[in-house]
Amino acid sequence: MMATSPYEDLTLTTWRNLLVLAVIFHAVRTKLDRLYDMGTQTNSVRLVLDQLALAAQEASVDSADGEDEEAVLGKAVKAWDANLYTALGHKALEPDARNLLTQIRDLVSHSAPNNPFQMLFAAIEAKTRDVYGEAWRPAVLSVAHINSHPRPGAQTGTDPYTVTARTPWPPNGGRVKVELHVYCDKFGPAAFAVLPMLLTHECVCHVPARQDKAKNDSLFAEGFMDWAACRFLREWAGALDPELASAARMHAQRLTEILTQHDRGKEAAARRQGRGAAEALFSWFEWKCKLPPDEAGSRVARLAVELNQMDSSIRLKDHFVALLEQPFPPALDGLLRRWVAGEIDTRQLFVAALSCVPFPGRSS
Amino acid sequence: MKASAILAAAVALQEFRVRQLAAYCGATPEEVEAALATAPGWIEPTGPQQWRVVEPDAIRTAVRSAETPESLQPTTEPATDAVSRARLIARLVVAEETLIECGTEESPALRQVMAATARNNVLQVLAQLTPEQGPWWNLEDPGPSWRTESFNSRIQAARETAQAEIALPRLRADFELASLTGREAAGEPVPADDLVRTAAWLRDVLKVIVDGRLDRLLQRFIDLAIGLAGPAGLGQPGASARTRLLVTLAWRRVRRAAELDARQASDRMLLILQQLQKERDKLAGRDTIGLYRVIEHLPDGLNRLVVYRDLLELLPSKMTCHHQKELLPDVVVEAVADSAASDHLAWIAGWLGDGLDQSPFDSESALIGQAAHVFNDVVHTATDMDASLILRGDQMRMQLLSLAKAPARK
């Protein structure tokens, strides 16, 4: 029987290559932070990571169409194990590197050919479905290859996140498609570790969104919602995969810094301002309403989720977020206090807040 | 998972399902159920797996007593004193991008919202620069003019605190453009003075700052001004076809120029608006823009003319005419011509004017097309005087036809 790629946008060879890498990174996920850090600092570790890429490529290219994923993985693991054995045989190998590579060699020997992309996506989708309840839209994962870094001009030395995700708009049919775009040639440990953040962002921010259009520089969708997605990931990371949790949280933070601080474009500005608005609201709940931090954070996340599932123009949602600059206008302050007290619901808060500072133009 | 964290999230949700609450706080459904059991009377079931918080304050008190003092300290300072330069720049970027996007937003209501979003961002930046003058939302009087003393005084105050990246003329130009955008979207008349003033601010900013976003902002302003002033110029709804042709050409040429050199186009835009304002003021004296007019007879048979500039391209080379200054940039010039050139220009202007007056088509593109058609006829009538007219006339015709195809913008 012919093996096939599970994703229509990936050839069988590319899929096998990517699967090998993902399975191995998944197997060593407790060491991903260390592997990434030492890979950037130590020649011997950088070399074995290069050798892993080569082993994955050779195994995927050399395998017959009929070979199953386990066989392809077995070839790659065997080849890379030989590389690790050789590396460990060098007497000059640094003690830290020796320790790490020894542990990795042991972990890789237990790797299983499950699809880590699908496993992560299914777990994140289940969590997000619980958050949104009936407003959730069923989603399906797609994986595709891209030929370059997702941020043009970025170098993997400073931006190792060679993977990105998108959710095409509008949703087509019954299921929303979440697309993971992977630069397979440079898919390393950091890129694997950031997958939970990317998938959580797509599921929390975009899959259940009710709005008129997609907007990559939306204060609401890419900033305010992203703050909520990051919060959810911090809460979920342990349950999604306890062994990946540490790396997932750390690389989520690093990617956020890259997306908001190292870019001066309009998308970065929107992310920065939208996230800043969420932070301002969080602080306001803590300082002005004297709410415990856990409640304050959950309230911001709840507001984000309820606004996201509210059918309304993204322009209006952006306008709402832009109002969240401390000190809040008195009318907004009052509305938020009534919302905290349960006197008005989120829709009432949203509608009333939009005009709490007059619009330009007489007929507003 | 601590029960206090679960209960805190429960208060945030007010009404919830068990799995929903578990997802909000990273707990398992079993941990949630166990936590709910610790708060009898404070949370009550409303259905299968559904709960409602009935005593939020009691839960908050319990949560606080269960937490360590450190964990109850607010985790971040309020933003007022901690807004970084990067955040200010981000707001400015968002404001300007929002104003630019107004050009593609069909809905006037949403354009009005976007104008408010942009305006609020500008006010927030300014308030951060002048915190002693009060909060951002206190800057604005909701009057129709949108020109407030408070904004001006704050701009003055900000001169001492502004950072290099936040140019005050830029803030002012953004503010004015947001105001114009809002009023256009609301269908409110915009005084010519406001257009001229905004053009002047944009020109001043473009003189000192090179930034592609400002170039696009100027293009947006030009589109907006064209929409507000209309093809007839400022406040001339019943303008003749001749006037409408000239004003339309001025708009379309400056719009095209803005795509190539925003800085230069900003100068021209200001001159156009100033000239249209003058023309409007002269309307009572019927001293309006025209295709050809002798304004002074000079010695030696020379005449000082105000003439539609494209007509000069159709003069045979043996006739003399010196272009002296731009009145309506790229469209109407003041020139000095000998008597033969004056007569020839008057003849073409008459032909064109008759064609425009008799044209059954009313759109601005049709007027430009009509001009191109007349030029073609003029060239073929006058080629015996100068064969090079064919080439010049053809170039002019092609240029006009390309302008006639320029898309109309909001």
Explain what the structure shows:
The complex is a heterodimer of chains A (364) and B (410). Chain A has helices at 12-27, 32-41, 43-62, 69-89, 95-108, 116-132, 189-193, 195-206, 219-240, 245-261, 266-287, 293-308, 314-322, 330-340, 346-354; strands at 139-145, 163-166, 176-182. With 364 residues, chain A is mainly α. A three-stranded mixed beta sheet of chain A has the order 1-3-2, covered by helices on one side. By secondary structure, chain B is an alpha+beta fold. Helices cover 59% and strands 9% of the residues of chain B. Chain B contains 16 helices and seven strands. The model of chain B is unreliable at 77-83 (pLDDT under 50). Classes of the chains: A mainly alpha (364), B alpha+beta (410). Chains A and B meet through α6, α9, α11, α12 and α13 of A and α1, α2, α4, α6 and α7 of B.
Topology summary:
The complex is a heterodimer of chains A (364) and B (410).
Chain A: H1 12-27, H2 32-41, H3 43-62, H4 69-89, H5 95-108, H6 116-132, E1 139-145, E2 163-166, E3 176-182, H7 189-193, H8 195-206, H9 219-240, H10 245-261, H11 266-287, H12 293-308, H13 314-322, H14 330-340, H15 346-354
Parallel strand pairs in A: 1-3
Antiparallel strand pairs in A: 2-3
Helix pairs in contact in A: 1-3, 1-4, 2-3, 3-4, 4-5, 6-8, 8-9, 8-10, 9-10, 9-11, 9-12, 9-13, 11-12, 14-15
Chain B: H1 3-13, E1 15-17, H2 18-25, H3 29-37, E2 43-47, E3 50-53, H4 56-66, H5 69-72, H6 85-101, H7 108-129, H8 149-158, H9 168-185, H10 192-208, H11 212-229, H12 241-260, H13 262-282, E4 292-297, E5 303-308, E6 321-328, E7 332-337, H14 339-358, H15 364-382, H16 388-404
Antiparallel strand pairs in B: 1-3, 2-3, 4-5, 5-7, 6-7
Helix pairs in contact in B: 1-2, 1-3, 1-4, 2-3, 6-7, 6-9, 6-11, 7-8, 7-9, 9-10, 9-11, 10-11, 10-13, 11-12, 11-13, 12-13, 12-15, 14-15, 15-16
